[in-house]
Amino acid sequence: MSAIAASDVKLGAHRFRLYESGKPGREAVLWLHGSGPGVTALTNWEDVLGTFAADFHNLAPDLIGFGDSSHPDPPPQGLAAFTELRIDALLGLLDEQGLERVHLVGNSMGGIVSVQLAMRAPERVARIVLMGTGGAPVPPTPELMKLITFYDDPTREAMADLVRSFVYDPACVGGDLEKIAAARMPVALRPEVRRSHLATFSPGPPLPFAPQDLARVAHPTLVVHGREDRIIPVAVSHYFAMHLPDARLYVMPHAGHWLQLEHPLAFANLVRAFLQGGL
Fold first, then answer.
1. What CATH code is carried by the domain that includes residue 231?
2. Total domains in the fold of the chain
3. Is 229 a catalytic residue?
């Protein structure tokens, strides 16, 4: 697997922990992780960064309010407000890296950030991949509520149970789930990480994902979803595919919320073909 470089990028009041692979100067892909206690870009995308190193310049930051990036104090309250701050910071990161346009690959909440970034600055975005993206007007699943309310009982057992719910068949993933849960737990217990999580999921105005809002996102978009996803139901991706003007939908069977971990070869082949214009 190709080497992954880690760095800290200071941008005014914010600081990103950034992971990179591939050669600068190639087409750039911004990989945006999902939410959850203790999540980091590396626990979401480590294998992907190696897989795509020969094809693209890959950038996977810990989003603001996650992992080793900065945690505002006081933080914005609610998903919509915190997403706006995260987009401001990401646009600053693109400027600092000298990137005029990038492809976006967003998982879950990272997909929410991707769509809103494309709304805010369409000229900075080439193609978009949404994997298990949230934000549609669909009721939350019980498993998503466990993620949101994790800090009601932040135990190792709760973390292990939450991570198992992200995949269709934990037995097929082997020891990777235990590794991810072990890596996330100490991060989740940091006070600033807890503060950012609770602020993100505090009550706030709804996201601007009504059909007329999505109609403004004209970028070629690949909407990918695991058929058995217990975190974000597949109906959410049907909603995005219906209302994004240039979307194509791929539903993967025997898969949950983490396609990149459950079906790494199929996920890589699909995303690579799309980003290179083959779909």
1. 3.40.50.1820
2. 1
3. yes
